[in-house]
Amino acid sequence: MSDFPTFPAGFTFGAATASYQIEGAATEDGRGPSIWDTYAHTPGRTADGATGDVACDHYHRYPEDVELLRRLGVDSYRFSVAWPRVQPDGRGPVNPKGLDFYDRLVDALLEAGIAPAVTLYHWDLPQALEDHGGWRVRDTAERFADYTRIVVDHLGDRVGRWITLNEPFCSAFNGYAVGRHAPGAQEGTGALAAAHHLLLAHGLAVGELRAAGAREVGITLNLDHIRPASDSEADLGALRRAEVLHNLVWTEPILAGRYPEHERETWGAMLDGSFRRDGDLETISAPLDFLGINYYRPLLVADAPHQRQDPAARTAVDIRVREVPWEGVRHTTMGWPVVPDTFTELLLDLTARYPDLPPIHITENGSAEDDRVGADGQVHDTDRVGYLRDHLHALAAAVDAGVDVRGYYVWSLLDNFEWAFGYDRRFGIVRVDYDTLERTPKDSYAWYADLIAAHRERTAAEQ
Ligand code: GBH
Known about the structure:
Blueprint: E1 12-16, H1 19-22, H2 35-40, H3 58-72, E2 76-80, H4 83-86, H5 96-111, E3 115-121, H6 127-130, H7 138-155, E4 161-166, H8 168-178, H9 189-211, E5 216-221, E6 226-228, H10 233-256, H11 264-272, H12 280-284, E7 290-294, E8 299-303, E9 321-323, H13 341-353, E10 360-364, H14 382-400, E11 405-411, E12 430-432, E13 439-441, H15 443-462
Parallel strand pairs: 1-2, 1-11, 2-3, 3-4, 4-5, 5-7, 6-8, 7-10, 10-11
Antiparallel strand pairs: 8-9, 12-13
Helix pairs in contact: 3-5, 7-9, 8-9, 13-14, 14-15
């Protein structure tokens, strides 16, 4: 009991998921294909050829999942809407059956006393839009604004919290430069254009959400706490380049209305690119009610040679940086080092850099662990409990130091489709048996439920 961190009254506790990772029902009720259907069905792209065709079958089992949330005691549930369910071609006609599903889900949540927090885009771009250039082209940002209007017109009477994009870093750079996410491209300027158009899509969507009277509007970024492998000039240079790639390309336009001016050699296209138009940065920097942050692990970086000799062949992530292993700490099954203090430091650094930062919601935090079902049929995931406990303590330390954090969403409610890793990595606080689709709450679920209950009891007593 005493190892529970404490948070201010009114703090939001939640759990998060994303459409393609849990829904399944990939061809049902008029859903169109997304870039992740295409990617996952391409041989060699995902572990064991895993796809989201069935996933957790949440599309059919959502009542059971809402009941799990209710028993957990969360204030809020963060899920994403699949664009290709709502607009199968990414433009034009609306698919009413797709909207119906989110209607049922939102109503079930409200019935259970849980506030829905909707992410409008968690990586499942309609394939039809990718066929016309995807995020490389400006039209996709404009189509996203149309789609946003459709969803907010439909759900805005019942949904208060809106997140435009989840981790545009991943969409732009994993998708169009590293190639380990859909659509699997490895490009230079194409990936930088994608980054800009994602930012623009965010800004245009904020405008639509405001026009519809949305209560709370934000975006979710995966920001990193990055350290140099040494204090050599070369490694400090690598640190500066990595900080632009991971953090500043996103925070500078959104929070300060500008692109980072340094490291011009690497990022000049963001400043001068033909894909930019006057007024874009103004759109992108529209004020937000909150900033969502996903945090998992710190990065250690060192100077490195370019991956490709020919400058014309270089991708946008070929920035002479290599990741160095973080020694002397535990690593999760993602291979990620567990260093909870870096969570506090990230939040303090961010607040120091942007004094006018909007309130923060931690929209994801959690760990993939080597879960085993014990002889008693239960999952005693002590490593995950330790990870959550230590990161919540680190978060409470940031709050105590004055960082304005309003909420925390654990990733994830359920074991699910972990992108290129397929079903091989388990992040859930509820186990999913992928043969029977049976759900079994893990020890971490019980621990999180107890933490929430203790918070309620303590803050009620304070009143
Ligand atoms: C978040 O991404 C996502 O929002 C969430 O969907 C995801 O499940 C969760 O974290 C856990 O990863 O497939 O080889 O490119 C955080 C960034 C994206 C980093 C997926 C790891 C997998 C490596 N993660 N990536 S690969």
